[in-house]
Amino acid sequence: MQALWLLDPKDVDAPVNLNAILYVPDAVPDFLDMTHTEVGVLLYCRRVLIQQSAKDVIPNWLRFLKGVIDSEDIPLNLSRELLQKSSILNKIKSVTLSKVVKFFQDQMKKDAENYEAFHSYYSSYFREGILKSQSQIEKEDIAKLLLFESSNQRPGKKVSFQDYCSRMQEDQREIYYLCIPNRSLAEASPYYEAVKADNLEILFCYHPADEVTMISLRQFNRFNLVSVESALQRN
User: Fold this and answer.
1) Minimal CA–CA distance to 160: which of 192, 194, 126, 121?
2) Domains of the chain listed by start with CATH number
3) By the 8 A CB rule, do 25 and 66 touch?
4) Which of 7, 20, 112, 198 is exposed most, by the fewest CB atoms within 10 A?
C-alpha cells in the first residue's frame, strides 16, 4: 500500500500550525534491517530544516514512513535540548500519530485486501510500538491496526480488535486469545477445545511477538486480554 497523507492547518484539531506529507515507500523494508534505522521524516520550520530525522515528532516504530513535516510554530532559536522539551513538538507528535493511525484505520475499512497485504509486511512495527509505548491510550490506538485470525471466522479471514469487540457476548468482559504457530495447531489445542463449548470467540495469534505484545497491551476498550491457558487455569 502506498499511503499518502496530506495535512493542511485547517484540518488540525489542535492549536498548532502544521503541514505534512507522509507516505509509505513502494519498496518494503525488512524489519530486521530497519532495527537501527532512524526516522525517515524531515522536520522543517517555515521551510528551514530543523531535524534531518524527526525522532522528536515521529515515534521510532513509524520509521518506515517517509516525508516532510513543516510547522511555523516551532521556535527557530531554541537549542537542541530545549527543542526536545518543547510543548509544540509534543502537540505535533500527538496530532501526527493520531492522523497516521486514523489513516491506516480508514484504509482497513476501504480496502481490506490491500490493507491485509500492508499488514503482513508492517505489523511487526505495530507490535514494537505497543511494546515501547508508555501510554495505554497510545498502545490501544496502535492495537487498532493489528489483524488476527479468529475461531469464529474461516481460515485466512482476518479480524481486528474492534471486530472482536463488536461480536462479544452481552455478559462477556474479556478478550480471549491463543498464541500458537498456526491454525491447525490452534484448532487441535486442548485449550481451544475446552473453551469452544462456551461459544467464545478466540483470536489466533501466530506472530512470534504476539505473546509479549498481548501482555504489554493488557486491555483493549476496557476489556482485559486473557490467554485461554490463563482462563482455564483460573477456572
Assistant:
1) 126
2) 6-110 (3.30.230.80), 147-234 (3.40.50.11260)
3) yes
4) 198
Q: How many CB atoms lie within 10 A of CB 90?
A: 14
The CA distance from 68 to 19, in Å, is 8
Cell 516504530: give the residue: 61
Find out whether 108 and 145 touch, Cβ atoms under 8 Å. Answer: yes
Q: What confidence tens digit (pLDDT) does each residue in 60-119 have? A: 999 999 999 998 888 776 656 556 667 888 888 888 898 899 999 999 999 999 999 999
Sign (positive or negative) of CA dihedral 124, 125, 129, 132: positive
Altogether, the residues listed in the chain come to a count of 235
Q: Percent of the chain, pLDDT > 70?
A: 88
For the stretch 24-33, contacts whose Cβ atoms lie closer than 8 Å and that sit 24 or more positions apart, written own/partner, are 24/64, 24/65, 24/66, 24/118, 24/122, 25/64, 25/66, 26/2, 28/121, 29/64, 31/124, 31/125
In this predicted model, what pLDDT tens digit does every residue of 28-52 receive, in sequence order?
777 766 776 888 899 998 888 888 8
